[in-house]
UniProtKB/TrEMBL annotation:
The chain crosses the membrane at residues 20-43, 55-76, 83-103, 109-131, 143-167, 173-193, 253-277, 289-307, 319-337, 343-366, 378-398, 410-429. Keywords: Membrane, Transmembrane, Transmembrane helix. It is a multi-pass membrane protein. It is found in: Cell membrane. It holds the Pfam family Sugar_tr. It comes from the Bacteria. Residues 18-433 form the Major facilitator superfamily (MFS) profile domain. InterPro entries: MFS_dom, MFS_sugar_transport-like, MFS_trans_sf, Sugar_transporter_CS. Gene3D superfamilies: MFS general substrate transporter like domains (1.20.1250.20). It comes from Amycolatopsis thermophila. This is MFS transporter.
Length: 454
């Protein structure tokens, strides 16, 4: 089998820079979606939010992520990754900054939806661009590491919130929500000039532009033979969103969206309202709960690192199955024994967080590997949109569930969702370890294996 220039090029300076630029999206996602849990107390007191409105404020950005991924994944496949790579951050910066002057609950909800749209757009844009530049032997671990950036952003949100509230209380909640604009501007400026994906360019018949993009990235022009090999793997094709829902790709779409939904439905709800949930165990909502929220979020990030290696040595399929099992068990214990001492509750939340972190790295590995270049961003967008149905629903319903059902039944619901995720993965999770993108995205594995053997 002949390797393309992208798979043959050693992982180097360009790849590392592109990773950090792409990781800016997940960082902002984690920050923006988590900072609302810090600001919700001040916003509720200042704007007179009802419990239902609190849930809408928490879930509104997730609704935006759903819309952004669904719409802009398809747009990205049509117009290119590089252009959208910067435009989406402009919307994010503006929507965050405007929180400084929000007059009422519905304006706040609307701005959070817009911020979510920008974040949702960045999922398919950044992941597709990065995956299409990475060599096969580093793709799994590098794409998985993007998830760690999400938890860095979430932890940063809690720490910023703790620092601000420790000094000024809940009153500057608008500044806390607007603080996401600053890293957004930095990442936006750093992304300017990023080369377009040569895989996407070849799919659109732009061979000369693909040659220039490779030169910009690797510092040399590809030979005609090298470019021909890549062009054979990426034949011209028109992006059609309908392909995501037809043929062999329908089951892949349901799998990617389904396991992602089951991961984030309980996780986003708990992370967004960690201060509230931990407050139920006796922690002060204004101080200690925020620090524990940051600590457990960092534990979640720590769970990513061993699995980043395991997806290459052990495989994608076993990692995703067993992390679902490991995340369900502590939630079940918390559900059956809601009166546990706070220290034991923190231990169980930490075990759940480690498992969640490990399994979450597959969220940006599987969707990018299971679909071809002409529909890759569309598929990532659709999968993230499916997942955000669960995330938005869980985030909206968690405060209502705590109020009407109590802590124990709420945790049991989270455990049940994790069990459903386990079943989905046992039935549908494929193994794509070590495969080039054009191989893992093929729906004819027998034929692919024969071609590889030639």
């Amino acid at each position: 089998m002949r390797h393309s220039i992208i798979d043959a090029e050693p992982y180097g300076k360009f790849h590392r820079k592109l990773f950090f630029l792409s990781a800016g999206g997940p960082f902002l996602d984690g920050y923006i979606l988590s900072v609302v849990g810090v600001a919700i107390g001040g916003a509720s007191a200042d704007l007179g939010l009802t419990p239902g409105q609190e849930g809408l404020v928490g879930a509104s950005a997730l609704v935006g992520v759903l819309l952004g991924g669904l719409v802009f994944g398809w747009v990205t496949d049509r117009v290119g990754r590089q252009l959208m790579y910067t435009i989406d951050l402009v919307a994010l910066v503006l929507s965050s900054a405007l929180c400084l002057v929000v007059p009422d609950a519905w304006w706040l909800i609307a701005l959070r939806v817009v911020a979510g749209v920008a974040v949702g757009a960045d999922y398919p844009i950044a992941t597709s661009l990065l995956a299409e530049w990475l060599p096969a032997d580093r793709r799994g671990r590098t794409m998985g590491a993007l998830v760690a950036a999400w938890f860095v952003g979430a932890a940063a949100a809690y720490l910023v919130g703790y620092a601000v509230t420790a000094v000024a209380g809940d009153e500057p909640w608008r500044w806390i929500l607007a603080s996401g604009a600053l890293p957004g501007i930095i990442i936006l400026l750093a992304r300017l000039g990023t080369p377009e994906s040569p895989r996407w360019l070849l799919r659109h018949g732009r061979r000369d532009d693909a040659r220039e993009a490779i030169h910009k990235a690797f510092g040399r022009y590809p030979t005609e033979a090298e470019l021909t090999v890549l062009a054979e793997q990426e034949p011209p094709a028109k992006s059609r969103l309908s392909r995501v829902f037809t043929g062999g790709y329908l089951r892949r779409t349901l799998f990617a969206g389904g396991f992602w939904l089951c991961q984030v439905a309980p996780a986003f709800a708990i992370i967004t309202f960690y201060p509230v949930v931990l407050g139920a165990y006796g922690f002060s909502k204004g101080g200690t709960a925020l620090l524990w929220s940051a600590a457990v979020t960092l534990v979640t990030m720590a769970g990513c690192f061993p699995c980043i290696r395991l997806v290459e040595s052990w495989g994608r399929r076993p990692v995703i199955i067993w992390t679902f099992v490991a995340s369900a068990i502590p939630l079940a214990v918390l559900g059956f024994f809601p009166g546990l001492p706070a220290v034991l509750a923190i231990v169980l939340f930490s075990v759940n967080a480690l498992a969640q972190g490990g399994g979450n790295i597959l969220q940006w590995i599987y969707p990018t590997e299971l679909f071809p270049t002409d529909i890759r961003a569309s598929a990532v967008g659709v999968a993230s949109a499916i997942s955000r149905i669960g995330a938005a629903g869980g985030t909206y319903l968690l405060p209502l569930s705590l109020d009407h059902l109590g802590l124990g039944p709420t945790m049991l619901i989270g455990a049940a969702i994790a069990v459903i995720g386990t079943v989905i993965c046992v039935l549908w999770a494929p193994e794509t370890r070590g495969q080039a993108l054009h191989e893992s995205s093929s729906t004819t594995p027998v034929r692919r294996a024969r071609e590889t053997a030639r």
